[in-house]
Amino acid sequence: GEDVEQSLFLSVREGDSSVINCTYTDSSSTYLYWYKQEPGAGLQLLTYIFSNMDMKQDQRLTVLLNKKDKHLSLRIADTQTGDSAIYFCAETGNQFYFGTGTSLTVIP
Amino acid sequence: EAGVTQSPTHLIKTRGQQVTLRCSPISGHTSVYWYQQALGLGLQFLLWYDEGEERNRGNFPPRFSGRQFPNYSSELNVNALELEDSALYLCASSPGGADTQYFGPGTRLTVL
Asked: Span A34-47, mean pLDDT?
């Protein structure tokens, strides 16, 4: 369960949707999380999903979980320049593992 | 309600020195976690304390240690500092073990 993988970079135009993907390995994870980190700051919890759910929607954020493939995604609708940040997925089961982070750049 | 606080904000040390970082959890939270975020790398789990006890430890050498006090605040100690210890050290707290973690702003440690 040590490898939580994310693509490193994503660039989108303002107003488009962003999709950030994550694969994890610990099937015992009970919660999966998305955090946002702005430059020089700590991590801000965005949303989380229970492992027995397939989807969770929270305003502009949609989390999809494919437990069979151990794949988690975060979709940000109508992406704004303020969404530019690094996004981390994380799993907490027996251990606590964070992905390497995806740097999202929103182009005005 | 106050969030997780960490002190100091920034710290500069030289190789071989020792450093102590501090963290105060959200009121009512009993678990405190420490992570290292080196430049260009993701978060690496360091330590988890709950109810004053060390519950789990990441893959770091013994010169990284810590403790949790009766008021649930925590210290992270790093001895014999090395250049590669330069990183942002993040503390998080949760109501209990394996619950949602809420992060502090971090302490930026630079080792020269």
From this structure: 90
